[in-house]
């Protein structure tokens, strides 16, 4: 059981005339328990907001099963949550572990998050309990410090667990096509190296997804350089070591769902496959390998059998489109066919990790592509593997890293639905 210590950094919002800017106000509570809790309002829009809560075990023994309690102080309402079972009764919010994260080792922590509603003000909770033990009282700090807009996504939101291929021929270099050779952006935005941080920009958000970090050691950072029209510029750098058959991270640009909705409107998603809408994606990027890497650069499409999935609704299908790979990286499942789509040949793999995973692996790597991603789902529909009643809920584009050090610079990325 967690007992007798807490430090609570808290967040407030400073909202500008054009957009919300998150000011993080740090405040220390009485240091009286063997745990710490960090509560942050990390994104706010209209009458909604996203909250982030981190529970840390600062004691000397494992916590085996946890239950967090706190009260909303100004009438906030819980809409949805992740990485735990969330309930609200009156002002009181209770979160119990999700099973897979029930154990917190000494020095370890669990991050959970939620979406909520607010009116008038969005005051921070003043006290927390873990397993019924009061964790401390808030002592407000004097002034906020401003940081970029950051929100968190559930740690239990992996893309497919991948196995590296042993075939040396799987290691590809970028195409020599002139349009495929792009230079990195001359300047980059501020880096965010927080696990599962999200940088919201327009209808997109850049996700510092490190879902497989437990299988290795290292770190990853992301940044975004802004929008030019509908085109996003962003990047990531990484250093990962460990099992070179397991993915450590998938830093990506997200449009739509990812165990919840960070941008609730304006994405054009979900869209049912039977609608026949084009999903036009343009991507220009540069990979810089500081050391040899086992990695890929790929689209990741998520599909559901319901029209409006939320955080608790796992996908039924995942479709990956690999543009670039290095070091023998290979997808989950087994090769089923070689197909021609958009004038290019792709090896098609099929596997299952609790949902169906289909991977189209380009037979020669490139660093620039304009594709109608519906061509790939149409191929699966024609094979009888994917029902046209399914809903495309998310289009993501990023890099899966198994091992190595390097960076990805996206100079231009856009997705248009319809």
Automatic annotation (TrEMBL):
**Which positions are tagged coiled coil?**
none
Give residue ranges for domain CBM2: 28-138
Segments for region (Disordered): 142-189
Q: Membrane-spanning regions, if any?
A: none
**Signal sequence bounds:** 1-20
Q: Which InterPro entries does the record associate with it?
A: CBD2, CBM2/CBM3_carb-bd_dom_sf, CBM2_carb-bd_dom_sf, ConA-like_dom_sf, GH11/12, GH12
Q: Which superkingdom, per the lineage? A: Bacteria
SUPFAM superfamilies listed in its UniProt record:
Carbohydrate-binding domain, Concanavalin A-like lectins/glucanases
Residue stretches of biased makeup (Low complexity): 146-188
Q: Which UniProt keywords apply?
A: Carbohydrate metabolism, Glycosidase, Hydrolase, Polysaccharide degradation, Signal
Identify its protein family: Belongs to the glycosyl hydrolase 12 (cellulase H) family.
PANTHER family registered for this protein in UniProt:
BLR1656 PROTEIN (PTHR34002), XYLOGLUCAN-SPECIFIC ENDO-BETA-1,4-GLUCANASE A (PTHR34002:SF9)
The name this protein goes by in its record = Cellulose binding domain-containing protein
């Amino acid at each position: 059981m967690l007992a007798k210590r807490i430090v609570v950094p808290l967040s407030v919002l400073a909202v500008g005339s054009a957009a919300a800017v998150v000011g993080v106000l740090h405040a220390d509570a009485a240091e009286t328990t063997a745990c710490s809790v960090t509560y942050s309002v990390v994104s706010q829009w209209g009458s909604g907001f996203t909250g982030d809560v981190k529970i840390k075990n600062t004691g000397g023994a494992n916590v085996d099963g946890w239950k967090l309690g706190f009260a909303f102080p100004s009438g906030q309402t819980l809409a949805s949550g992740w990485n735990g079972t969330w309930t609200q009764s009156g002002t009181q919010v209770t979160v119990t572990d999700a099973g897979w994260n029930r154990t917190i080792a000494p020095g370890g922590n669990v991050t959970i998050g939620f979406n909520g509603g607010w009116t008038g003000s969005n005051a921070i909770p003043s006290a927390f309990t873990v397993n019924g033990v009061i964790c401390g009282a808030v002592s407000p700090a004097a002034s906020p410090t401003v940081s970029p807009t950051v929100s968190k996504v559930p740690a239990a939101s992996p893309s497919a667990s991948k196995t590296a291929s042993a075939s040396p021929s799987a290691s590809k270099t970028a195409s020599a096509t002139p349009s495929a050779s792009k230079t990195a952006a001359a300047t980059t935005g501020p880096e965010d190296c927080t696990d599962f941080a999200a940088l919201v920009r327009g209808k997109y958000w850049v996700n510092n997804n490190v879902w497989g970090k437990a299988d290795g050691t290292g770190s990853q950072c992301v940044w975004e350089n802004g929008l030019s029209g509908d085109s996003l510029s962003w990047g990531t750098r990484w250093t990962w070591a460990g099992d070179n058959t397991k993915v450590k991270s998938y830093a990506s640009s997200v449009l739509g769902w990812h165990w919840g909705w960070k941008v609730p409107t304006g994405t054009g998603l979900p869209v049912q496959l039977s609608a026949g809408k084009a999903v036009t994606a343009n991507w220009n990027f540069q990979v810089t390998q500081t050391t040899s890497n086992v990695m890929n650069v790929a689209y990741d499409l998520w599909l559901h059998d319901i029209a409006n999935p939320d955080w608790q609704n796992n996908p039924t299908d995942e479709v990956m489109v690999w543009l670039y790979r290095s070091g023998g990286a290979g997808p989950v499942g087994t090769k089923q066919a070689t197909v021609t789509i958009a004038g290019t040949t792709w090896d098609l793999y099929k596997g299952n990790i609790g949902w169906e995973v289909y991977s189209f692996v380009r037979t020669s790597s490139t660093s620039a592509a304009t594709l109608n991603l519906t061509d790939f789902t149409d191929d699966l529909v024609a094979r009888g593997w994917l029902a046209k009643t399914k809903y495309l809920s998310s289009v993501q584009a990023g890099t899966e890293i198994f091992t190595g050090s390097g960076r990805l610079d996206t100079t231009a990325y856009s997705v248009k639905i319809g």
